[in-house]
Amino acid sequence: xxxxxxxxxxxxxxxxxxxxxxxxxxxxxxxxxxxxxxxxxxxxxxxxxxxxxxxxxxxxxxxxxxxxxxxxxxxxxxxxxxxxxxxxxxxxxxxxxxxxxxxxxxxxxxxxxxxxx
Amino acid sequence: xxxxxxxxxxxxxxxxxxxxxxxxxxxxxxxxxxxxxxxxxxxxxxxxxxxxxxxxxxxxxxxxxxxxxxxxxxxxxxxxxxxxxxxxxxxxxxxxxxxxxxxxxxxxxxx
Lengths: 117, 111
Description:
Chain A has no helices and twelve strands. Chain A has strands at residues 3-6, 10-14, 19-21, 23-26, 31-38, 44-50, 56-58, 64-68, 73-78, 87-95, 106-107, 111-116.
């Protein structure tokens, strides 16, 4: 079984400040890792994903995340946020191909990022 | 491509009523799934399908049925709605690279 913990339920920041949204996961097998963003009253949009290769992953809208296998973490960062980044962010994990749970996404509880002017 | 579409966008039911949430995708993805989203709990998997004719239960399947007669469609049925099923429901389909694409959601209220 796998689980995901997002360490902060709400993160308030001022515009142009840096931000880090923290995500830790637990799994007995190798996993794929994802960050999704949900703007108010909308569906989920993929920000970035880690499948293999470089542990630093760059996504849309200037976000990046770093996979740390030893710490089982996948924290999301942005060096300078905008008002338009206000949204809820979800970290998710799925087993790699070949596992019995391949394809099933397990989500964290979500982090609400609020960017103030 | 329309991607993943869901209907209706909003629905209000009375306890005990039944309804079907529709989901369709035009990306020829084999894997499709249904999630429910509740405040502070993230998204939880209800049912999933790895291809036409094949479905299985997720984390919270009770009170929901699914079928998959075609690759494109994956409807979710509530046979006897309960207030605990008040939630936002998302359908998703998965590409071969592992990315899941989500529909816009259906906001369901059960009175």
